[in-house]
Amino acid sequence: MSLIGNKEQFSDDHIKFEINSNETVKTSLVNGLRRIMLTNIPVYAITREKVEFTENTSLFDDDYLAHRLSYVPIINTLEKDYNNIELKLEKENTAHEQIKIFLRDFTANEELDIKDIVKYPGMLLTVLNPGQKISCTVKFEYGTCKECASNFSPVSTAVYYYKYDETSEDLNSERDYKKDKLGNPKVYVMSIESTGHFTSDVIFNMAIDRYKYILNNIKEDIIHKKGAIVEFHRNKRAAGVRLVLKNENETVGNILTQYILDMDKEIICGYTQPHPFEKYIYIDINYKNNTFNQIREVFIQIIDKINKILDDLKKDFSGSSTKKASKKSKTPPPIESKEVDSSLNDETTDEEDESPEDSSESEEPLEDETTNEETEPLEDETTNEETEPLEDNRREGTEPLEDNPVSYTHLRAHETREDL
Prior knowledge:
Elements: E1 4-11, E2 14-20, H1 27-39, E3 43-45, E4 51-56, H2 62-69, E5 87-92, E6 99-102, E7 107-108, E8 124-128, E9 133-138, E10 141-143, E11 155-162, E12 187-194, H3 200-223, E13 230-235, E14 240-246, H4 250-261, E15 268-272, E16 280-286, H5 292-319, E17 322-324, H6 350-362
Parallel strand pairs: 1-17
Antiparallel strand pairs: 1-2, 2-12, 3-10, 4-9, 5-7, 5-9, 6-8, 11-12, 13-14, 14-16, 15-16
Helix pairs in contact: 1-3, 1-4, 3-5
C-alpha cells in the first residue's frame, strides 16, 4: 500500500494529502517533517541589512520600507547565483498628482526579468507625491527561520491531523481517529501552504532531504567517533549510556527514541532538552551490557530504518496522482422567483395607493408596559454572607517532592522486568 494518498492541489502554493502509516510511519516522523518545514529549510530572502537607500523623500522612512521589502517572497528556483543578483529602484514623481510604486518597478541585473525573481510583482510598495523621489538597491541573504522567522519562512502554514473515524458512533466522534493494529494513528492528513519562495510540493521533498541530511550527519559522527555532534558518556544514575547531541532538539530526539523503543522490548530509552535555549539534547539508553559499541550499533540501525521510510515516502509522493481541487463556493443558492402576472407590472392597484393612508390611521403607538411598574433594585446576596478563607487541604507532615533535574520522554519507567 502506498504511503501517500488523496493528494489534492489547490494551487502551486497549497497542497493537501494523506500519509498512510502502514505500521511504519510514526507521529514523531510526521511531526518532525512539519517542524523542519517551519524552521530548517534555507531560503534566499531580503533582510534589512541588504537594503540600501541613496535617496528617499517619500512619505515613509527607510526602515519602514526596508521592513516591507523583507516580507516579499523571492522565487528560489532560478539556476542563478543569488549572491550576484541585485535589484534597483530609481523613481521620481515629475507629475502633478500622486503615483504608486510597485515591485515591478524594480530592475534586475544579469538580464533577469523582475517577474522571474519576485513572486508577486504587482505588490504595492509605497506612493510618491509630486516632487518626491526614491532610490535604493536590494540584495539577497541566505538563511533559515532560526535566524529570522519573518524573513526566511518558506511556509505560512504546515499542519497535520489524524484522519477521523467516520464510522464512530461516539458523541465525540471528532476526537476518534483511525488506528492501526498497534493503536497508533492509521492515516495522517497534512496540509502545506507556501509563502511563495518554493511551491508546496517542493517544500515537502526538501523537508525529507533535510531530515535525511541531519540524521546522516549524526550517523557519520557515530561511525567515525568524531565527537563533533555526538558524545558518549556513562550515566551512573541510570546505569546506562548518555548521548549528548549538539545543536539538536526534539525534532531528532523524539523520532530516535520512538523508533528505538520499538526495536527491542528490553531497551529503555528517553530524551530530554535541559532548556529550550540550550542547543543540545540528552538521550539516555539502557540496553544489554551497555557497551558503547552496542549502543552505536543500535543508533546506526535505527537511522538506516528511518532513512528507508523517508525514501519510500518521497518516492510515493512523487509517484502519486494529483487531483486539482477547486475551492468550494460559499455563496448561497439562488432564490427561486415566483411567477408574477405581467399585467401588474405597468398598473398599480387601488389597494396599493390607499395602503399608506390606511396604515397611518390604524396604527397606534404601543404602550410601554414597564413604565407603570415599580422597579426595585436587586439585592446583593453576597453582601450579607460571611466569607471564610479556604482551608489548607495539605496533610500535615508532607514534604516537597525531590528535585528531578531530568524529565524523560518515552521512558518506560512504569514497566517492571516481569512486564518486559
